[in-house]
Amino acid sequence: MKKRRKYRYQKSYRIKRRKPIFKKGFFWPGFLALLCLGGLSYFFFFSSFFQIKDINIEGEQKVSREDILTGIEGEIGKKILFFETKSVFLVNAAEMREALISAYPQIAGIAFERHLPDSLDVRVTEREARAVWCCEECYLMDSQGIIFEKAGLDSPDLVRVIVSEYPEEIGLGEKAVEEEVLSMILEIESKLKDKTGLKIKEAKATSAERMDFKTDEGWEIYFNAREDINWQITKLDLVLEKEISPEEREHLDYIDLRFTRVYYK
């Protein structure tokens, strides 16, 4: 008998050619979307229509308008890739505020408001001097205890806050006195003026409990900062009215209100 031959059959494969990417279904919609996005980005960020042209500044007194304007213009100018821009949409208010307050300690706060298409409103709030902080030199200080400029001869009505030791590192725009301490000093100064007519020249927090005040008459008052200030001032008023005559006040050294009994010399 003849043997049957065995035949192997192989499947035939056809090689598919890849379509060029621009012939694929997603290419043209994606390309058009990217083109639109690029066009819109250019329009909003680089076209002259939205470039800041007007900067309106209000509220400045101690810091010159020219200095503030220079600082703002230095911050709004940006470079993206190879393009420079001052787009109103790229204004970073937080960065500008931090830069200006750091450069000019007299500024307490600054607010920015964009007005489309090409203007920026700037509202400056400057620090108000509430006291004079003195150690080796004297500086104006606001209600938060932050020093912001050297004190001149035109600030005689402000109480001088004296410190015994000069901090190793402190600069303008930094806190020199804790806000709670300064608040108490200013409160006592105001109440003394209202209730007794005394004017305070200097104040010193010698400890957590003791505060010393020097009057414009040359004598001092010692307060217990942890006791009722109103009652201590009432005791002071009674002593000045009933025990110490105006003539004797010329030779007065101090009045100590820290204890139950009032001591004076």
Structural commentary:
With 265 residues, this protein is of the alpha/beta class. It has 2 domains: 48-126, Roll (Ubiquitin-like (UB roll)); 131-264, Cell division protein FtsQ/DivIB (Rossmann fold). The protein has helices spanning 27-45, 65-76, 93-103, 179-196, 229-242, 246-249, and strands at 54-58, 78-80, 83-85, 107-115, 119-126, 131-134, 138-141, 147-150, 160-162, 200-205, 210-215, 220-224, 254-256, 263-264. The strands form 3 sheets. It has a 9-stranded mixed sheet with strand order 8-7-6-9-10-11-12-13-14, with helices on one face. A 3-stranded mixed sheet has the order 1-5-4, covered by helices on one side. Strand 4 and strand 5 form a beta hairpin. It starts with 26 loop residues before the first helix and ends with a strand.
What's this, in brief?
By secondary structure, this protein is of the alpha/beta class. Helices cover 29% and strands 25% of the residues.
Alpha-beta classification: alpha/beta
Main beta sheet, described? 9 strands, mixed
Average pLDDT over all residues: 85
* Superfamily (CATH H level) name of the largest domain: Cell division protein FtsQ/DivIB
Strand order of the largest sheet: 8-7-6-9-10-11-12-13-14
Helical proportion, percent range: 25-40%
Number of strands: 14
What order do the helices and strands follow? HEHEEHEEEEEEHEEEHHEE
Strand content: 15-25%
Radius of gyration: 37 Å
CATH architecture of the largest domain, by name, is 3-Layer(aba) Sandwich
CATH topology of the largest domain: Rossmann fold
Number of helices: 6
Given the C-alpha coordinates, what overall shape results? Answer: elongated
CATH class of the largest domain: Alpha Beta
* Low-pLDDT segments, ≥5 res: none
